[in-house]
Amino acid sequence: MHAKITQDNLYLLLPIKIGWLAPWLAEEKGISLTEAIGRIYRSQLYKKLSTESTKYWHLGPVDLYEELKREF
What we know:
This protein is mainly alpha-helical. Helices cover 58% and strands 0% of the residues. The chain has one domain (10-71). It has helices spanning 14-29, 33-41, 44-49, 61-71. α1 crosses α2 (33-41) and α1 (14-29) crosses α4 (61-71). The longest helix has 16 residues, at 14-29. The protein starts with 13 loop residues before the first helix and ends with a helix.
């Protein structure tokens, strides 16, 4: 059974995606995990990721991190 991702349930995926990205960002930038999470939540990537119609939620961690690095 495949669940359909909608704007109403997309929020369930976001912590998983952020959990992939935050440790990488913290290590690369030499910042705390808390600061990395904050930066991600304030990023343009997060806006795209949290909007179902962009389909960014479908991307894997490496692609998402590459997008985040381009932004920063």
